[in-house]
Each structure stands twice: as C-alpha cells, then as structure tokens.
Amino acid sequence: MATVPLLSDAEASPEARAVFDDIRAVRGTDYVNNFWRSLAADPEQLAEVWDAVRATMAAGALDPLTKELIYVAVSTSNGCGYCIHSHTAAARAKGMTEAQHAELLRVIALAARTNALATALQTPVDAGFDRTGTEAGS
Amino acid sequence: MATVPLLSDAEASPEARAVFDDIRAVRGTDYVNNFWRSLAADPEQLAEVWDAVRATMAAGALDPLTKELIYVAVSTSNGCGYCIHSHTAAARAKGMTEAQHAELLRVIALAARTNALATALQTPVDAGFDRTGTEAGS
Amino acid sequence: MATVPLLSDAEASPEARAVFDDIRAVRGTDYVNNFWRSLAADPEQLAEVWDAVRATMAAGALDPLTKELIYVAVSTSNGCGYCIHSHTAAARAKGMTEAQHAELLRVIALAARTNALATALQTPVDAGFDRTGTEAGS
Amino acid sequence: MATVPLLSDAEASPEARAVFDDIRAVRGTDYVNNFWRSLAADPEQLAEVWDAVRATMAAGALDPLTKELIYVAVSTSNGCGYCIHSHTAAARAKGMTEAQHAELLRVIALAARTNALATALQTPVDAGFDRTGTEAGS
Amino acid sequence: MATVPLLSDAEASPEARAVFDDIRAVRGTDYVNNFWRSLAADPEQLAEVWDAVRATMAAGALDPLTKELIYVAVSTSNGCGYCIHSHTAAARAKGMTEAQHAELLRVIALAARTNALATALQTPVDAGFDRTGTEAGS
Amino acid sequence: MATVPLLSDAEASPEARAVFDDIRAVRGTDYVNNFWRSLAADPEQLAEVWDAVRATMAAGALDPLTKELIYVAVSTSNGCGYCIHSHTAAARAKGMTEAQHAELLRVIALAARTNALATALQTPVDAGFDRTGTEAGS
Predict the structure, then answer these.
(1) What interface predicted TM-score (ipTM) does this complex get?
(2) Which CATH architecture has domain B60-122?
(3) Which superfamily, per CATH, for B1-58?
(4) What is the mean pLDDT of residues B51-67?
C-alpha cells in the first residue's frame, strides 16, 4: 500500500523518466526501486532528492560505506522500514560484511539504550562539551 | 536539572566508585562526566552500561571513530541532547575532522529528509530487498 | 494483524454500535474504517476519541483542510502508517489537490531535514523567540 | 523559554482561574505547575486536559502508581523533558521507591534497545501474535 | 520481510541453538519467536539480549506484569510494531485483563497528547522538580 | 550550549557571510538567528539549506502561513526545541492569531493521541486507502 501511485516508466512525465534513466545509468542496472517511483508525481522534487543522494553519498571526507551505515542508523531510529531495507541493501552492495552489520546493530542498540537512560534521567550536559564560544574551526 | 541526584565520589557507593575509578583509568583523565554520576544510584546498572559501552565501542569489524559517528546519528534521531554532546566530543577526541563532521551532518539531514518522504508516501518495500528466506550468512 | 480484534457491528456493544452509527450519519457513508473497530472494545474511549475528532477537525480559526494537512504532518513524523493513510485520504476528500500534496511533502521533508540539523548542532534558542514573559494575549 | 506566556492567576481568564483553583483543591497545594499556566491561553483546552488527566490517572483496573510509571515511560520515549520531570515527581509523590525507579529505568532502556534491534532487523511479526480475527473480549 | 535471514534450528550455530533451547526451557514451549531467530546471526548478541530480558523482566521491586505494560508503552512510543505485538501478547500471558489493556491504552494516549502540548509550548521545567542537588537516596 | 561554534560575521567565511547578507536582505532585518550561525562552518550546506527554505516556504499551492503551521507540527513531533521556537515565531510574523495557534495545538495533540492508539492497536490499513494501483494524477 502507498498513499500515491507508483509510476511506471509509461506513466511518468518526461522529466521523471529522465531521472529514472539517470538512476539506471549511474547504478548500472535496469531496476528503479519503489522510492523513486513513489516520488515521481513531483518530478522537480524527484530530481532534487536524487541529486542530493548522489552528491551526499559520494566519497568525500567519509567513505561511501560509512555513510550508508550512518543512513541505516538514522533510518532505524526514525522507524522508516523502507529506508532500513533499501540502505541495508545498499550497505551490503558497498561491501558491508556480516561482522560489520552485527557491530552496526550493536552500536545502534547501545545508543538507543543510553539515549533512553540519559533522557529519563534528564542528565545535564557537562560544561566541557560546549563548543559555542570556541573559535571557528578550532 | 535532573530527575536524580548526580552522585559525587563521596556520595557514591563503593561499587559505583569502583566504576568511576575504572572510567578514569581507561580514559586517562580524572573527570567523570555527568551521565555516569546520574546512573550511579543503581551501581549494578552503572557497571553493566559501562561494560557495554567499553566492549561495544572498541575496535572490531568497525573502527572506533565510525562507531562514534553512528552513535551521534542515533542520538540525533532520538533527540538526546546529552548524548549528542558527549558523543560529538568523543568523536572529536577519536580524530573526527571538521570536514568529517560536516559530512556526518549532511548524511543525517539527508536521511531524515528521505525517511520523512518514504514514510509520508508509505512506499512499499521492494521484494528484492527481502533477506528472510536467504541462507544464513549469505 | 492487530493486537485486538476488529469488532463487527454484530460483535460491538450497543454503546460502540451507537458510535459506529454516528460515524456513518456524520460522514454519509456505510463504511466504518478499521481504526474505530479496533477501538471498540472500550466503548467509552471510542466515544471520547470520536467526539474529540469531530470537534477538533471542524472549521474554526483554521479550515478543515489545513487541519488535515497538519494531521498528516504529525502522523508522518510519528511514523503512524495507519494515520498517514487515513488522513491523506481525508485530506483528498476535503479537496487537497496533487499540487498541495506535493507541497505538503516538501515542507514535511524540509522540516525533518532542518530539525535533524538543529538537533545535531544543539543550536541554542535565540532570546528573541522567548514569549514566557510577554503579556497574556500579546 | 516558552512559545507562549505562562499566565499568572491575575493574567488568566476566569475560566482558566477556575481550573487552577480545582487543581489546587484536588492536589491540596497552592502551587500550580508551569504546564497548566502555559496551557491557560486556551481555557477550554486547559479544562479538557485537566479533566482527562484526573479521570485517566485515577485508580481503576491499574493503580495510580503503575499509571505514572507508564506515563514516564511514554514521556521518555517521546523525549518530553517537561513531562519526564513532572511525572517522575508525581510517581515519587505516589510512593515510587528508589528501587522501583531503578527498575523502571532498566525496563525503559531494555525496551529501547530491543525496539532498535527489531526495527533494524525488520523482524516480521509472528502469526501467533495476531488478534484481528479473535472473538471480541476473548 | 526482514533485513536478515530468520535462522531455523538447523541453520543456527551451536551457540545460537543453545539460546533457543534455553528460551524453550524457560518458557515451557517449543516455539521460538521470530525476534530471536532474526538476532541469531550474532550468537553473542543473541545471548546477551536474552540474558538481559530474563534478568530485567523478572519479579523485583516491580512485578512482571507492570514491567510488560511499561515495555508496551515504550514500544508504542518508539513505533516498533514487532515489539508492540510480542509484548502485548506477553502481558496477556502474564494476566493482563481487557480492562487493564484499555487503561494502558488510555494512559499511553494521554501521555502522547500532553507530551505534544508541553513540547509545542516548550514549557520550562519548574524548579521544584529538580533533583540534581538532593542528597543521594533522598 | 552547542556542538559547534556560532560564527559571528567576522568569523564566517566570505561564502557564509554572503548567505548571512542574503538572509538580512530577504527578511529586511539585521538579525541573523543562531541556526544559520551554527550551520556556517559548512558554507555550502548553509547556502543549500537557506535556498531550500526560501524556495519551499514561498507561496505556492499552499500559502506561507499554512506551511509554517505544518513546520511547527513536524518540529513538535520530532521534539526539536529550536525549530518549534523559530517557526512558531515565523508563523506569528506571517499573521498567525492566538486562536489559530490554539487550534494548531489542538490538532497536534489530537493527532499524537490517535497516532499512539493506532500504533498500540496495530490497526491494519483499510484496503480503500491504498493508492498504489491508481492511475497517475488521479
């Protein structure tokens, strides 16, 4: 079920189809997954999100696999089932081993546990953690 | 403000003080941050959480800095101010550069954005992402 | 799947059936959607929630469609799949166009993105936003 | 800081002051906490929420302390600092011991941990948990 | 669908099978539910989580049913469908009546409602709720 | 407190200062609020977010005030204190009356309440809400 139609290539506008084609070209596969098809009713937003994903997830100061692990962590905490599935698959495609997946799960679970404790305790932030007054870039 | 007292060394039980001392020894600093002091009314849980943090965050299939980035990502998504502060500081202490911090923020923000979209659209998960029936370890 | 039975008209108590009948009369349809059937085991809560929905979502200082858009925004952020589906449908029934739906999605996604950034940065609230000390109604 | 003024008795409307007085009478104290003062700009909603709190938190099939523990658990998971503080205080006022508080924290932290795991794993719900088709009240 | 295989007894490692057997022995049933099978790829984490569940949910300062109610409350607030199903079932198995379930739902819904209000209002915490400076155990 | 320095005009890079100046020009005020200063360490992301806010929040199929109400609703549900403050102020600046604010709060609180109920009940989505198979644009 979805709150919008999932647009096939035939149903998509030329602008949306152009994004589908770019997804295919960049990924080297004919398959366009449902997220993009559910976004395609708004071709402008479709293009912006695809551009943002491509630019943000590329290698930079962090490598692409690390970025996928962070993506899975956020998606899990936000409870987005679709995103957990698609980015766990993406992490595997970028080389995530079973041992790395197991450690990712352990860190996510530990953080959820201590987040709950610090929140329930309303622990005040130590002054030493503050960066407000530090010099730019220090 | 906190929902519990933050125990000083003098107020803590011998069991809790032993954990404080271990934190000091492992970290090579005299400072014990507020989270541990707010947990110290339950020395058994204090010890368990400290042991879990030490074991989970050690180098393994993922390196310690990657684990801290994941921790910040979860803490941000869960809205735990204390944990965001303490683990951003921990990431810096483990070598996170300003450029890496900037990319971490970009990935977290992008994931929050697409999580919201996939959730609002209720996009159905592609069958190809399913691992239920795969062989163990495949 | 549900954690409770979905009560048919025959299974519901007279008090719950009376609420079902009111839902039908107000909406001008024979269909009672699953949310109300899953609440019906507690007829008092069923009646209170139905009364609250009717009173709160009626035209007032905000029009009914604007209220449905807000409802979808909250439901998306809370990750309630049922509510996203039912209130997106309700918004369409109250006249939401595809263009309005597209803009709703854009605002939700933008807010999720900047929420994540402000939370990760732990940006302190500007003093100018405070209303605590303002005069009532000012 | 708040997004609205906190109304003093002098600033509140007669309808809001009547709710303040009822809060004082029911609780046997002169102090009206900030939540009610921040709600008082809308006296009708103030009255409805106060009535709902009084009715829902009274002894019934569950005792008042158990209800406060559930309230703290929800407030922690939703990250509402105000509510965590006020309902932890309310639980103490209703007899919560330090040992009970410690166990409450342990259950909340364990649930957060396993919630994260089941969500990251996207574990499918066992058919045996389903109650949809069961008879009413069974 | 799941992001990992659900391991059958034949597929699980000897360490994971030993945990499955302990679950069966403690619960007096042959059935091992999907959560444990989805965790079994990491037998060490499987064992740790099972041990934590058993220890934390046992009778102590709070009785086992109260703990299950708290678990359902957290799982609902975190939106973990699997956990809501499994712990609602567990609460029923420990004696939760329909009347208690109805009151649990009412408290969860009330807390979600007032959490949203206090958060939208950004109500400042009353100084009287603070416990930071209190003596340990007071 | 913040996890990064808040950059003054003197500390900001020329690229970041240009965004500050554009914010001033568009808003007709000298004041640049903390969110932008906390983002300024990454001038590229600062510019992208500012551009996205300006484009998304402009009048379109939805009017600017409706968009701010949706923004407040999302920010409340995500528990972002900074964003609740800044967008409640923005809504007031765009004409939100006290009566509209009161209704916004009521809708947010009602949605949070029924979200919690539908989630706790795990109510299955009615087939009639599905749009997956509908024709594009229908």
Answers:
(1) 0.96
(2) Up-down Bundle (1.20)
(3) AhpD-like (1.20.1290.10)
(4) 98
